[in-house]
Amino acid sequence: MSSNAPRQPVKDLHFFLTVPHACSYLAGREATTLFLDPQQSPGQGVYDSLALLGFRRSGRHLYRPHCEGCSACISVRLPVEEFTPNRNQRRLTRRNSDLTLHLRPAIFDPEHYALYAKYIRIRHADGDMYPPSHEQYRTFLTLDQQYARLMEFRLHGRLLAVAAFDQLEHGLSAIYTFFDPDPELERRSLGTFAVLTLVGQARRRGLPHVYLGYWISECRKMAYKQDFRPLEMLDGRHWRRLITP
Fold first, then answer.
1. pLDDT above 90 covers what percent of the chain?
2. By C-alpha distance, which of 166, 164, 167 is closest to 140?
3. Of 91, 96, 83, nearest to 200 (Cα)?
4. Which residues form the N-end aminoacyl transferase N-terminal domain (predicted)?
5. pTM for the full model?
6. Cβ-Cβ contacts under 8 Å for 51 (sequence gap 6 or more)
7. H-helix or E-strand containing 69?
8. Which string of DSSP letters, residue by residue, matches 127-173?
């Protein structure tokens, strides 16, 4: 989905910094976030430009970390044509071959919310997204923009997972994935499978990258991103190969 509308120059945009707050990823650290002025709608052209500079989307807001004295959050993306799944990823693809996919607009759906609430209560009760609420879900994962999409994963009609993602001019941006935390489904590794599915979707659409958000080497919850290689990282204004262990 390429937009023919003229892009608004980044220099014409207005941004705001939050006050320092507790970091969600590294204990004992403070974080500051740079936001695009919420009065400036995250339209396609603006979003395309800012994504190349490491900005992410949460609801209507485009943001990126702007922490004094800390650069732990690294923007990473996967070059689609260079990616070759490893043995475990190929196994996961076969294991989940019985799932059906459905693409939906990013609008509120009670079935999606019920799964999201279950996921947050069981998997993230110690996080800043607990307790879940309808308002929290709507402001985080719904957006009335053509580029914002939800991808359902179903097994014989049962909803197992939902992956929120955006289609940019230069790739797909993975926003958030939530899934059924039933222990019987652990072998499916639905979070990893969702990323593999986005890679396939990007390849079919002729898009060069899948954006995986931020990677922090010290954060255990982000370790899975290292399994997708090769990764590229944003170094200032330039993307280059990220060398991971």
1. 82
2. 164
3. 83
4. 21-91
5. 0.92
6. 168, 170, 171, 173, 211
7. none
8. STTPSP-HHHHHHHH---STTEEEEEEEETTEEEEEEEEEEETTEEE
